[in-house]
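Quarterly update from the structural biology core.
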Amino acid sequence: MSSNTDNRKAKDRVLLPQRLAAQVANRRSRHLNRTLTDLSALAIPATHDFASNDYMGLARALSTATPSQHPHGSTGSRLLSGHSPLATTVEHSLAALHSSPAALLFNSGYVANLSVFSALASPGDLLLLDELVHASVWDAARMAVGRWAMRGNPEAVQVRTFKHGNVSDMCRAIGEYRAANAKGAVMVAVEAIYSMDGTVVPLREMVDAVGRWEDVWFIVDEAHSSGVVGEAGTGVVKALGLETEERVLVRVHTFGKAVGCHGAVAFCSNDVREYLLNYARPLIYSTMMAPAAVQAISDSYAYLVKHHAQLSSNLSAIIAHFRSTASSYSLPLVPSSTHIQGILIPGNQRVVRIARELLNRGMYTLPIRSPTVAPGAERIRICLHAYNSMVAVDDLCLAVKDLLLSEQEQDIKAKRDANVVVAKL
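Predicted structure, tokenized:
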């Protein structure tokens, strides 16, 4: 009986892409559709500005004062006065490079994740999060839940997690959800490379595993793979040949890390892009990044396309050298093959102390404490770069070895002194 009921529910299901397209079409039919305005294409130039947020004229004044071909500020939301032909050009260029039908720029990766997850999820849908996804995804999930709860909708957006990188546990969560609700869409949130462990998502295995279900989609945060992995740094999804896989609904790439500037982009279908333009509130109500920042994105990718092969080779050599050297000193490493490495040093006070000592020696590392990572898994986070030298890596590993050895010697001395005190009593 339940199987027949599930089948009837499945027949009634409208898949997520069709649902998004229908909502945009409905808005368009009511002449409420949001579109971008290209002022440069007007027959009569808009010489008098009564639209932008440049209230004191600083964007205009600084654009004149600063030797740049671009305005100093965007002056408003992209859907108001902040749009520019440059933004469209950069989006088209990035979409082509990443083999995506469309691209949409955002002010940051945080804003991109807030926008994507909060806009796409509707009541009855499931946001299924890898337990180690970035804080921005967790906040986006809360926003998605709150968006509908504040409207008094009795059917909530559901949020569940699965064990990190565990395909079987992901399938378990989807199966349990579908057994109770056969009509909702499932959006699985993963990172291409995880920021604390440097682990790579088993995306191909995940995509293959969900083939038994309709309306299950992946949203991939490529923050730590953008500019690093794949040809010209185009990321894990494309490196795996999954850029045309329909189950990968959205790829979020950020520019504040390896790309070396600011902002983010979502790669998706044209329908999803239009939906986000109409429903992604963090995008709609935020001032667009300055044109100079958009140009910086273009400049960074031009450099990456030209130099990525050599940079990637340098970075690979540095990673291999670090792993080899650290292992030779028996340093307790996080199992990572990427540019994000870690040396396990349990204890919050302890890991902070080691990081401080390294900084005193001219080595800038980051202490990662619980609850950011699990208690007992505190570590020195090592971000390796194409410009790091082999000598610098050697110095770092030796310094950590010496500091840990000094700790051990101090512990032994403290225990010996304690035993002496006890013996005298």
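The chain has a mean pLDDT of 88.
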